[in-house]
Amino acid sequence: MLCLLYYLNTKQPFSLPRNESMKGDNSMKAPFRATFILVTAAFSLLVSAAAIVYAQSAVTEPESYFGYSPGDDNRLFTYDELTGYLKTLESESPMIKLVDIGTSTLGRTMYIAFISSKDNIARLDELKAINTRLALDPDIPENERESLVRQGRVFFTATLSMHSTEVGPAQAAPTIAYKLITSTDPHVKAWLDNVVYMMVPNHNPDGMDMVVAHYRKYRNTKYDGCSMPGLYHKYVGHDDNRDFITLSQKESRAISKIFATEWFPQVMVEKHQMGSTGARYFVPPNHDPIAENIDAGMWNWIEIFGANMIKDMTRLGQAGIAYSYIFDNYWPGSTETCMWKNVISFLTECASVKLATPIFVEPNELGVGGKGLSEYKKSVNFPMPWKGGWWRLSDIVAYEVSSTFSAIKTSSLHKDDILRFRNDLCVREVNRGKTEPPFYFVFPVKQHDAGEMAVLVNLLMEHGVQVFSASESMHIGNRYIAKDDIVVPLAQPFRAFIKEVLETQEYPVRHYTPDGKIIYPYDITSWSLPLHYGVDAFEVKSYSKKLYSSLEPLSGTFRQNKIQKDHKGCAVFSANNNESFKAAFTAMEKGLKVQRLVTDVHGCTRGSFIIPRKETEKTAFAGLVESLAVKPAFVSGITDDDVRDITVPSIALVETYYHDMDAGWTRYILDTYNIPYKVLRPSDFETKDLSRDFDVILFPNNRKSTLMTGKYSWNGKEYMSTYPPAYVKGMGKKGLENLLRFIDEGGIVGAWGRSTELFMGLLSIGEKDEKEEFQLPVGNIADQMKKKGLNCPGSLVQVELKPGNPLTLGMPGTVGVFYRGNPVFSTQVPVFDMDRRVIARCPEKDILVSGFCENEELLEGKPLMVWVKKNRGQAVLFGFSPQFRASTHATYKLLFNTLLLPKIK
Ligand SMILES: [Zn+2]
């Protein structure tokens, strides 16, 4: 604080901060000075050349609250400390108000800190009503609209550090809040008259505390700044930014609600960090491809925000700002999904240090890659490359302060236009919904999995989409709509979102040069909710007044569960419904007897779950049924010959310490379906008695090298681990042998993706004379396919399922599976005590269902799921992810059936 006042009082001329930050060892000794100069300079140059005088009121400075300046080397504060500081500001200033927006997965309260002028904070409810009107009402009379625009304010949301190792944005939050609140500069005051800044101080509070605890544990040791073992979220880690369509996690729901149903801000930024040796800062716009359902005006506005950021930051001497590379604007799973709901939204990415430990980057270590920027050289989208040197958390804080101030300034400069744009979009999208097909999406009331339709309908409503049911039957063109079918009209303000998530994806192929290379996607290419959830849906391409007037809006929670009061017979939960598996596991947990039909009987399909008549009179049964979206059927005349008893298997789930998101997602699904399990680490395989302790072992997608050695390898080359040594352990040869013995003795393994490599090639059990060598009758030919040109970056491909097999119970004959091109299985005629069955194979044509797949014909007839037997054991190998990011509900049953597979006697 002394330095800050000194600078302000003496008004010394400003020197370029990057020179300060690149002085090498000398500047390392003066981290406080670097922080102060960068942050202060960012602030002063942005506002104007006018002298700045901070309020000398009783508002607590960050330094005196935390005992150091946020951004200082080796210092990180926790979530409680961060929110504690913001609450202190709230008690001291009328310019900040904290609003509770929900709880995190582990129970921490999440907040928005509203920061604006005193008057705006006092009329937040009124301003919120204006936001809502402009966002959702396409019919505001022009005079009234102009009046709303004048009275309204731009609401600018920033979500900070959802990726918890990207600590900088959240560590900059106190500085940003303090500076905004205490400034007496007329320019800043004018911005805050026009703009309400909505800071989500941390999008992932649980992860923030995990990372801070980890950093403090290893600070000043040999492993200072090392990678944190495990996930920085209970379930999903880095994939918390892949959840904004399915909204499976509490944090995603809390944030999505801000844009979908609650505050309707007009602008948002999500703040991230990237690697250490590339550009220093990424600002919008992103690179091609762009989402085709988005209105042209959106891209214009994003460019204005980005152009102002690079201009304002470059003016401050903040080097290394780049735009329009690597990140594309095609895929809609991130926080920026609100763009499809008419919010001008973008991300920023700052170069990282080792959490809070500074790094020194040699100029020769600097480089860029990926689409849009191939050389670390002066370019139109990278006009002032950073030259290398020291890079520290204080630099990140300074860049975050200046980019935030720039976006607030841009919001203020264009206040009226931004508010008009928001309502223009509402008008345009509603109009498109009335004039451009498709006009409606329809989900027939009769579904293979009726529970999943309820899940989908409730999800759409949570997204702020208006959903209806048809009150009468009718034909429209060649389509028949039955009474009670679910109808989603496109004439809605969030039309772009509705269309994006309900239609089938077609990748917008673009090339770098005419006939040149294709611009490949940043992430996956399929997210169509009906296809991913296994819900039948169709588009209606002609506009119908009759249908429009027959629509009845849905509200509350949609369910089709109207239980008969005087039921008789056994309760039958159809195997077709995912939620029946949840009912079965929950019932077993509650101590109810559960059976599975071994044959079709009385209109109930094989594999359905039966709760005998006697059990249905227990209180636990009523509680169970109440929680479901679809009622069970009650059937008399089911005999003991029709069923087999089932019990909860003892399940192990293999999770590595390597930010193992796929294992985390699997835990999430098992928890959601009330399926109990224990986590096994690869190193446990050496010592555990697997056959005694477990019936089923699950291997989520993982590299064989990570499972075997605990180290990452790529193209045959092993890389040094950045984790503390205690976490760098694999199964080893002995662990693998124990695993194979577990199978041989009657155990069941479920494995998908790269983990299936564990079971390929020559394997052995025992030693010397006892040694048994064998090769399971399955192989992986993905490398050959790749050489021939197969490229499937994450798409839905169709498979035909083996009917009548215990693994496909409850499944339709064909299904779209989420696939990334590896593995592609082959099988062989077996020898000795082994066998195999292809459970899922690609058809001869029409393989790609949704997304992008080059040379899809290479997959013709290829197995993508194989059941293998060895002695009394079984392995179920999936080429696809049955539970990908909790977004592929259509294939969950293949996983659940694996867990319930009868053992070979
Ligand atoms: Zn990130």
Anisotropy-based shape: globular
Q: What's the number of helices?
A: 29
Rg value: 29 Å
The bound ligands are:
zinc ion
How much strand content do the residues show? 15-25%
Mean of the pLDDT scores? 93
Number of beta strands: 40
- The helix/strand class is alpha+beta
For the largest beta-sheet, the strand count, sense and barrel status come to: 10 strands, mixed
End-to-end distance: 75 Å
Low-confidence stretches: 1-37, 48-56
Helical proportion, percent range = 25-40%
Task: Please provide a written account of the structure.
- This protein is of the alpha+beta class.
- Helix content is 33%, strand content 19%.
- Helix 10 packs across helix 15.
- It contains 29 helices and 40 strands.
- The structure holds zinc ion (ZN).
- Zinc ion (ZN) binds next to loops.
Brief summary:
It is built from 29 helices and 40 strands. It has 905 residues and is of the alpha+beta class.
Key terms:
eight-stranded mixed β-sheet, ten-stranded mixed β-sheet, single chain, alpha+beta, 905 residues, binds zinc ion, 29 helices, globular, 40 strands
Give me the secondary-structure topology.
Layout: H1 2-10, H2 17-21, H3 25-28, H4 31-47, H5 62-66, H6 79-92, E1 96-103, E2 109-115, H7 118-122, H8 124-136, H9 142-151, E3 154-160, H10 168-182, H11 186-194, E4 195-200, H12 205-218, H13 250-262, E5 267-274, E6 281-283, E7 287-290, H14 296-315, E8 321-323, E9 328-329, E10 344-351, E11 359-361, E12 389-391, H15 393-413, H16 415-435, E13 440-443, H17 450-462, E14 468-470, E15 474-476, E16 479-481, E17 486-489, H18 495-502, H19 529-533, E18 538-540, H20 545-550, E19 551-553, E20 570-573, H21 578-589, E21 595-597, E22 609-611, H22 613-616, H23 619-626, E23 633-635, E24 643-645, E25 651-654, H24 661-672, E26 678-680, H25 690-693, E27 696-699, H26 704-709, E28 713-714, E29 717-718, H27 732-744, E30 748-752, E31 762-765, E32 772-775, E33 778-780, H28 782-787, E34 795-801, E35 814-819, E36 825-827, E37 834-841, E38 848-850, E39 863-870, E40 873-878, H29 892-899
Parallel strand pairs: 3-4, 3-5, 5-10, 6-8, 7-9, 25-26, 25-27, 27-30, 30-40
Antiparallel strand pairs: 1-2, 2-4, 6-10, 11-12, 13-17, 13-18, 14-17, 14-19, 15-16, 20-22, 20-23, 21-22, 21-24, 28-29, 31-32, 33-36, 34-35, 34-37, 34-38, 37-39, 39-40
